[in-house]
Structure formats: structure tokens, C-alpha cells
Amino acid sequence: MYSWKNLQMVVTVVLLGLAAACSLFEQNVEVLQTFELRIDKPADAAMQFSVQKDVYTNTEQVQKYANDIDAFVIRKISYKVKDFAGSEAPFVSGTIEFAPSGSNEFTMLSAITSLHLKEMAEQEQESTIVLPDKTVEEKLTELLRMGSPVTFRLNAVTDNNPIAATLVVYIDALMTVEM
Fold first, then answer.
1. 95, 107, 105, 115: which is closest to 51 by C-alpha?
2. Domain tally for the chain?
3. Distance from CA of residue 56 to its chain's centroid?
4. What are the residues facing 98 on neighbouring strands?
5. Rounded CA gap, 61 and 58, in Å?
6. Residues 128-161 pLDDT 10s
């Protein structure tokens, strides 16, 4: 027969095995965000401008797994231009920034230098945003992970008006959830 000590050891091993198996049931879930920053500048408008958009990041996936998120990683942020109309050679330079909605403490997400709106729209080019540093990535990641509303802003200057265009921004994130 089994002794009490052997039975304790068997039960302990089984419980440890079950605990380890629980963490083996993880699933990767894509969290995709798309939003638009619309630029509308009449011919007589100032060359400097700012447009912003509140983005509600509390997606269905974030809501569903809110208490089970083990990891959240931004894989890629990119943008493209669509719906362009205006002058022949409009270049835009400036920054794309973000902040928790309701805050004025914006963080620079990316600098844009000499972005040729007409050419990008015609060629349907997509440009990847390289985050400036780990701190910026961590700040945005935490806002997305929490499903917080985020304000994105384009602060820019153009060399030619009129301009009408939409800057479409894509955020591709991946969260690992424990099942």
C-alpha cells in the first residue's frame, strides 16, 4: 500500500502539473485599430495646421480578455494617404502625437518630413512609423492594453494650399491571453 508521504507527493506532483498546464493554454489575439486624420485646408488658410481624432481603443477583443491579458505588443504602426484633392505639389512636415483623451500632455509618435500627399495617395503607398524610443512604445502600449480613449493629433505645416486629404493610420497589435 501507499504511505501517507507517497500519497502527498503524488498529489503535489499532480497539482504542480495542473498549474503548469494552465499557463500552457495561451492564445494570441490580434488587436487592429484604424483611424483617420482628415486635412481640409482652403487656399487662403494658414500654412500651419493641426487636426486630431479621439480613438476609442476599448475593442471587442480588449473587453473580452481584459482580465486575462499576459502580454500586449505593438507589432506595427503605419499610415497612408487617401482622398487627396488640392494643389499639385503639397508637402507636409510635422509630427503625429498621442495623449490620453482629455489630456494636453501629448507624446510624439513620429516626425513626418516632406510628405508628398498627392504622390502618396496616387501610389497608395503605406509608410511605417518607427517609434522614437522604448518609453513612447510603452506609453502607447499601456493605453491600448487598458482600452483607454486616446487622442491622436497631426501638428504640421504645408508649403502649398488648398489641401484636402485623409491620413489613415493603422495600428497592428498582438495580445497574449491566458485561457
1. 95
2. 1
3. 11
4. 107, 152
5. 8
6. 999 889 999 999 999 999 999 999 999 999 998 9
Structural domain includes residue 1: no
Alpha-carbon dihedral 111, 176, 57, 107, rounded to 10 degrees: -30
Nearest-angstrom CA–CA distance, 155 and 125: 21
**pLDDT tens, 94-126?**
999 999 999 999 999 999 999 999 999 999 989
Q: What CATH code is carried by the domain that includes residue 70?
A: 2.60.120
Residue 130 · residue 112 · CB < 8 Å? no
Q: Residue 5 falls within a domain, yes or no?
A: no
Q: How many CB atoms lie within 10 A of CB 17?
A: 10
Residue written as grid cell 500632455 = 105
Q: Are 168 and 61 in contact (CB under 8 A)?
A: no
Strand partners, 46: none
What DSSP string describes 31-80?
Answer: EEEEEEEEEEE-TTS-SEEEEEEEEE---HHHHHTTTTEEEEEEEEEEEE
